[in-house]
Amino acid sequence: MTRPSAKHSSRTGLRYRYRLVLSMVAVAVPLMAVLAALITIESSNSLAAAARAKEAGVARSVATRLEDWINERTRDMNLAAEELSGTPTITQAGSLTRLTKAGTDFTLLEVTDLNGKVLLSSRTGTSVDYSGESWFRTAASGQAVMQTPALAHGGIEWIVTHAILDSAGHPQAVLVGDLDLAALNTVLNPELDKGSGVVAVDASGSMIYDTTAGTLADDAAFIAAGSLSTKVQNSAVDQASHREQGTAEYRNLAGTSVVGAYDHVDALGWVILAEQPASVSLAPVNDQRHRSIVIVVIGSLIAALAAFALAMVETRKLRAFADSTRDAGIDVNSAASELSASSDELAATTTQQSAAVTQASATTEELARASAAIADTV
Q1: What pTM value is reported for the model?
Q2: How far apart are CA 165 and CA 305, in angstroms?
Q3: What is the pLDDT of residues 249-262, one digit of tens each?
């Protein structure tokens, strides 16, 4: 019997080994990929939620700072109006001067009569006639006015007023203050991460100030930066029209994809946007995904190596078992061949003995006939 060649046996072992490796890898890799995807999705969602929560916190913080600043300026106006109420003009002039020196957040303070005629100005030789403004009638009636910044008189005016009362408690004049827009450089600029920004948007959707424009010194700088002429249109502003707070992903005025949060300043009707580039805000999410891919690749290589090692061991065992089985088969075949030869010899011997018996029987019959013949003769 011909034994299988060593080359054929080696090829068979290799095929089995690779099939075993491929089978184990085919099971292990998808399983690791699914587990890594599930873990990554959960982790990514948590990191993204943390990034959005951070921006929401910044938006709330900035909105609160602005509200506090507005309240402080309103109190300044209230105190000044009370100090000016029922006093002669010379005393009013002194109070107005003191207010101007103490309140650097006003670019101009004026006292007007109820018809809008300027009686006093904090800036010598400078006065602005507000009598034709839509808000002046409200201010003259005794109601406090807080305007949002607007383009007027060749610059940007941010008007806040308070009535000056006579001794009977009736309006006798109006204290008009023009807030300095440059104060927003400080108020809207908390400690932000690199690349982050805060944008103030008024009720009409116009941009008031974008901190990424840097420090703006005066009205001309604000106008050059697009203040009140640039419309802000994004999903955050849209959502802010019917929600108090929230977050959104959108493209900012520079066209950069950002993660943003919005909040309201009710006293002004403004929306405050806190923005951070998505590349920065979601960097931990991307890093997590990259790490997951690396882990899956490394895990696949380890699984392949482990499967290959196991296949080597199992292949050796199976090959040894196959060799022992083949040797036993050869021995059995040899024994069977010997038994067959012995059977053939036995059959030949039996045939010879049968022929001898036949011949003896024939001889016996001849003797019997001879005996009968002798008996007949006798």
Answers
A1: 0.66
A2: 90
A3: 889 988 888 888 99
